[in-house]
Amino acid sequence: VPHGRPVVSGLGLSGSPGSARSSSVEAAPAVQGPEWRRPGPSRKAMWRRRRALRRQQAAGAMDGRASPSSSERRLIPPDLYGLCFRCFQDGHRRQDCSNDPLCIRCGEAGHVSAQCTQPRSPIWES
Fold this sequence. Notes:
It comes from Aegilops tauschii subsp. strangulata (Goatgrass). Residues 84-99, 103-118 form the CCHC-type domain. The protein has one helix at residues 43-63. It has a domain at 76-119: HIV-1 Nucleocapsid Protein, CATH 4.10.60. It has one helix and no strands. By secondary structure, the protein is mainly α.
């Protein structure tokens, strides 16, 4: 390996005597043009950004402030304050609850609303 460079034969990449590139042929000068720039975001990426911004603004308009991040704690509704979030009884917390879970959707014990077979209540349109 001359001068610490690998020799690639037949591809014209190494400049060695055995390569396809001969010493009598000079390389063409590089084309001088406008400086290359990274392309901007795609139309789909711009649509996603606008959509996310509209949703964020709509959420801010509804409650008068920006939507809370997932790390922030939400306020407990007054009717649930002090109740267990598993069985909705007073006097203990969810971590300490030994009662069956209570479904918010149908009001029956033994399952949570994500596992409820009852249909959801219809959304009232105004």
